[in-house]
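thought: fold this chain, then report.
action: predict
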Amino acid sequence: MVSSPHEAMHRIFQDHPGLFSGVSEALGVRFTRPTAVSIMPTDLTETSPLERRVDTLLRLETEDEEPFLLAIEAQGKKDPDKLASWAYYASYLLTKYRLQPMLLVVCQDRATAEWASRPVRFGPPQWPLLTLRPLVAGPHNMPVITDPAEVRKDLALATLSAITHVTNPDVGTILKAMTTVLRETPHTLSDPIVELIAQGMGKHPAAEIWRKLMAVDLSFYTSPISQEIRAKGEAIGQVKAILAFLEARGLGIPDDARERITTCDDPDLLRLWITRTPTAVTVDDLFTDE
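observation:
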């Protein structure tokens, strides 16, 4: 199953195709900013039953360079099988479109990023037939952007930086800089960024930091993900209130009842249980006639 960080790491390039110029420059490789970008089909399936798909595929054009294809892969862990797949992608794209292919791999894990960065040679050691050398963006080389002024310079680059630095000890400062800028950004641009960051945080502890910043700094946003984040935050507060009320009244909370309360994410049901805590004789009285 594809994870939300996986989607965020490559889909941001679909929403902001010019981001590749900022990423490549940050990584020390200069590509002229494209003057035209086309989102290409991601299906690389052959006529045989074996299906192959690249995460995102873009056709980039610039004023002073030949058009080229940019394949973007979000990589969550080391996978030796991917090396042959990436070589296949390059060969297939060159064969089908007659355009030079480029591969950008985006990672959140430093070890995975360093693994993906190593050149891989295919063929006999005496005479390698080809060398695979993807450009890799990850926590080992993406800039750590904690200054709102730097975020404003390139919001898309700052977003990808935040996603790749999800495990950075300073991720709270990174995300705070993002909300500072997003507060003053038009909704048509900020809403997709808010959702991409929410997806990119995945199940990492940084997700809780983003959830709190959403509840305070970006409380006026109404996108589906932001509403979901705030609803989860409200549910957590209700659960804590119910347990605190029951414990203050000296009522024992059996393990099964505690699990039922802590795993509930229905705000209406949680509010019902809160209203019953002052008069409940036992914890089971909370669950009567639901």
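thought: worth noting. The two ends are 35 Å apart (CA to CA).
final: tokens above.
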